[in-house]
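FIELD: query
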Amino acid sequence: MSAATALATYESMQMRSPDDLIEQHAPLVKRIAHHLLMRLPASVQVDDLIQSGMIGLLEAASKFDDSKGASFETYAGIRIRGAMLDEIRKGDWVPRSVHRNARRVSEAIKAVEGRTGRDAHDKEVADEMGVSLDDYNAMLQDAAGGRLFGFDDITGAEDTLSEGFDGPRAGPFEEVAEGNFQEHLAEAIRTLPERERLVLALYYDEELNLKEIGAVLGVSESRVCQIHSQAAARLRGRLQDWH
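FIELD: result
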């Protein structure tokens, strides 16, 4: 790209008003809403997600600073998802037993892998928990509908991915700690069993829905949910002692 072209591109970006950004990226809200909806109970309506996502887009358009180096779409996507997750959590539709069982699964996986030094198999985790394989898979299925996998699922925090943009800037130690955690998370993902790693890549990187992932793997949507939940539980167990 020539200097003149780069300058013209920069100037055109500078001239875009918040209204222009909102109009251009409104389809992004719908895409994210339908992507999240595939992981949620039937009681969650797509219109509610879109409404909360539009609020996130409005906030992103008014606060975006292109001098930070990130593209608006990347920044807006985080704000939109965060707004939707906030709305979902306000509904408080997830039974405590689902969260409790998700923690039990993580602890069981960690215990088995600590003894064997390898990836824990489904039957081994079920035996560690003292439940049948069917009951274990049901727990994974419930967890898939009860949580949206992200950094908060791994650390156990209740904050959404969007928090931190509007608050005080983190100090040097916090920034270094966050960077180190992301490095450890990336390494933990690389060590997941191949099928779990593939599900995460197809869902988050390629943004396929559960039905599409199932077609790729040759399994049902419910099995994709279970694999996804087990990946989250395995990561949570492996990173439990990170702090």
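FIELD: remark
The CA atoms of residues 144 and 225 lie 6 Å apart.
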